[in-house]
User: What shape does this take?
Amino acid sequence: MALHFELVTPEKLVRSADVWQVVVPGTDGDFGVLEGHAPFMSTVRDGSIQIFATAGAAPEIIPVEGGFAEVNEKGLTVLAEKAG
Amino acid sequence: MASLKELKIRIGSVKSTQKITKAKQMVAAAKLRKAQAAAEAARPYSSRLEAVVASLASKIAGGTGEGASPLLAGTGKDEVHLLVVANSDRGLAGAFNANIVKAALAKARALELDGKKVQFYLIGRKGRPVINRAYPGKIVAQFDTTGAKQPGYDQAQAIGQELSKMFLDGKFDIAHLFYSRFKSALAQIPTEQQIIPVKIPADADRNAIPATVEYEPSEEAILDDLLPRNISIQLFKALLENNASEQGASMTAMDNATRNAGDLISKLTIQYNRSRQAAITTELVEIISGAEAL
Assistant: This one.
């Protein structure tokens, strides 16, 4: 029971891991994604992605620039132009 | 017949040429590995983006068809074609640059026969002289890549933005991209691809995204955001493929050159030894006949 999360930039696959929750800075506001999230697509504004490996753990923060997030049954994929 | 000294100098110079080609071959081999890795690392992003754009686009185009971005729908005209030709900055890569330019010029001729206008946008500096000779004054712009060792996404983005701007300003109607697809170190395939307006593959899976997906802000807004990005990423992919192809072509060409130099050296060495032997024989004959005359 984990969310499969992938962060991809044009240069490489930055992160691919099973995590508890990811908070993504969407254009219309931040949104958190847990396992079993409804299919969803959003553009991403410049900001930071927070990755929670487990419930209650301190988030890992990765700054991203310009991109796009997609949630489907396989998990969350964030395509960012720049990350880290 | 060249004198002994001339032959010796000749052998020396071929040897030093061989050293250069050998070094270049090894450099290309090392760079090839890196370029190939970079090209592979870029694949997940571009394939995912392509899939999303294709399914979004077919959804919007299939639904209303109205209000779609011109980057997708085109200008409605088919007059001015922009040929974006990606070359390298350096030579010593066999027919690598020539092949790409040849493909672009063939396309340009075909378009002109159809009565279209042709313009060129160059990336890298090697193609310029040839294209300028064939189509003087048709090069609208050139993107300088000499500053960077490896093609970066920043470059692709800059080119993409420039192209989008030119397109929206009505400078051209259709853009084709020419680059060399990397198949292996021995085979690079000059490839043509239409980048503006975005071509949706006919076999795009229209149902890749289930209908229940929610969009934020909206399907159109997301697509408008993604289309320019898609152009940049296509360019980026082309640059990386081109880079890998260049190193591959360079490696093969330099391998051949090194081998040719080796052949030449052994031929010259045989010639050198023969004439040395001939000189010695002549000298002996002179001494002996001189002694006999006494």
In short: Chain B is about 60% helix and 15% strand.
